[in-house]
Amino acid sequence: MCGRFTLYTEFLKLIERFEVEFFLGEISQSYAPRYNIAPTQRILAVTEEGGKRILRTFRWGLIPFWAKEASMGNSFINARIESVLTKNSFKQSFVKRRCLILADGFYEWKREGRRKIPYYFFLPSREPFAMAGLWDRWQAPSGEEIFSCTIITREAAEEIRPIHDRMPLILPKGEEETWLDPASHALTPSQLQARFASLRTLPLQAHPVSTLVNSPQNESPQCIIPSDSQGSLF
Question: What global pTM score does this model have?
């Protein structure tokens, strides 16, 4: 699964890297480096609407449009690529409402006896990347609208399996447009699912970090600093 990640890349660099064409001014004004993003918090994602890339904020934890309560989204922070077409919570979003969730690293925990050691994963270049995501719009009985999203996961790459058996589906830059395009270049939903389930994973680096990251209240750069207690994984 993916339960924590970071996004500290400079805002204008994100706009350039992900070819964003529109965003509300309040997004740029409120943007701040994040080192320990947790479920239910607001996160940044790119959607494609009318052929334009739009930067939006979403609540992390997808609330299906048919849900009776917003709390249902707390159970849907991740969606498995292998089962998105068989889950009512995700099927329509997979077909119609895909997005790029922006990140520059993510955390996973390795169990050693009674301890769980957090590891931080990132691209060797330290560049930001897009995790495949789905989004939905839910309307509360009061009339309030909540836009929410979930992170797609896949089987972990071989080198990550000593830590965890799942990982976020990180999109190569050349596949981002296909993921965003509602038409998906005439691929059927099943073909699209198969295409992304079989993508080659990007090379990652990782190192253990402090247990500071265990609490979402800790948001400092210290969360990603290598821990002296363990050696680097690779």
Answer: 0.94
**Could you read off the pLDDT of 90-139 as tens digits, one per residue?**
999 999 999 999 999 999 999 888 889 999 999 999 999 999 999 999 99
21 in catalytic set: no
Q: Is 230 a member of any domain? A: no
Identify the CA nearest to 199 among candidates 165, 234, 158, 169: 169
Could you give the C-alpha distances from 49 to 41, 149, 182, in angstroms and in order? 24, 16, 9
Whether residue 232 is contained in a domain is answered as no
Cα 186 to Cα 93: distance, rounded to the nearest angstrom? 17
Tell me, yes or no, if 108 is annotated catalytic: yes
Q: How many domains does the chain have?
A: 1
CB 204 within 8 A of CB 123: yes
215 domain residue, yes or no: yes
CATH number of the domain encompassing residue 58:
3.90.1680.10
Structural domain span for residue 134:
5-224
In this predicted model, what pLDDT tens digit does every residue of 148-161 receive, in sequence order? 999 999 999 888 88
Q: Are 151 and 133 in contact (CB under 8 A)?
A: yes
Q: Please write the tens of the pLDDT for every residue from 4-62.
A: 999 999 999 999 999 999 998 899 999 999 999 999 999 999 999 888 999 999 999 99
Catalytic residue among 48, 99, 108, 176: 108
2, 99, 149, 223: which is the annotated catalytic residue? 2
Mean pLDDT of the chain: 93
